[in-house]
Amino acid sequence: MNVSVVIPVRDGRRYLGEAIASIHAQTVEPLEILVIDDGSTDGSAELAAAAGATVIRRAPEGPGAARNAGAQAARGEALAFLDADDLAAPDRLELQLRALTDPGTAVVAGRMVQFLTPERADELRGRFDCPDEPSHSFTAGTLLIRRETFLAGGGLNASLSGGEMIDWVQRVRGTGSAVAMIDAIVLRRRIHGDNLSLQREALHAGYLATARAAIERRRAEAAE
Fold it and tell me: Which of 5, 64, 85, 211 could make an S-S bridge to 164, C-beta 3.0–4.6 Å?
């Protein structure tokens, strides 16, 4: 099974090169790296192209819409998402592909660790919670997904301002698709201060909308 790696970016040049390098360093080579440029003005697209990625430029619509566009354009049988400021563990694709070979499994989730970006570590230390222990998380960068399942599930709800991947996983689970979890670190999430939402109210509203949608689906299923 081959993998398309999709990296959405908007003005993320500062860390994008390291994100792409972490994919080039994989123990299993992906079929392609797609960088979905979501209206950047800082040269992110040019950097990505120089780093060997295929760049798709779009008007800015947000990361959910960018990931959906990447999934539509991808040629791989499986999708791996990565944020432009994060790092994939070197054996991420190898370990998750091994679990995805089970024909009954549609999604494989792994563990995530967080780290303070070195150039701002002193400034950020104490301001942000950065646990040393790895955790399971249904964030985009911890999942490997069968492309046909992602598209059949309608992709991400790009109207949500937060929790769109959790919403998608809940919807897919509701169809009976299996979500496997492996006990391995697949993602190193960079904490640099600006990636944590400063729009807390918008983010909170997004998660509330996700929770409400899940509750409404369960009620509808129970009524049937």
Answer: 64
Residue 159: which residues within 8 A CB-CB, separation 6 or more? 64
Q: Are the CB atoms for 50 and 17 separated by under 8 Å?
A: no
Note the pLDDT tens digit of each residue in 124-169: 666 666 667 887 888 899 999 999 999 998 999 998 877 889 899 9
Q: What is the CATH number of the domain that holds 100?
A: 3.90.550.10
Which tokens go with 147?
């492309």
Q: How many C-beta atoms surround the C-beta of residue 62 within 10 A?
A: 18
| Burial of 155 (C-beta count, 10 Å sphere; 0-12/13-18/19+) | middle
Looking at 90-142, list the stretches that DSSP marks H as alpha helix, in order from N- to C-terminal side.
92-100, 121-124
Contact 40, 9 (CB under 8 A): yes
Query: Tens digits of per-residue pLDDT, 23-62?
Result: 999 999 999 999 999 999 999 999 999 999 999 999 999 9
CB atoms within 10 A of CB 72: 12
> For residue 182, what are the domain limits?
3-223
* pLDDT one-digit tens code per residue, 16-27: 999 999 999 999
Strands 78-81 and 135-136: unpaired
Q: How many domains does the chain have?
A: 1
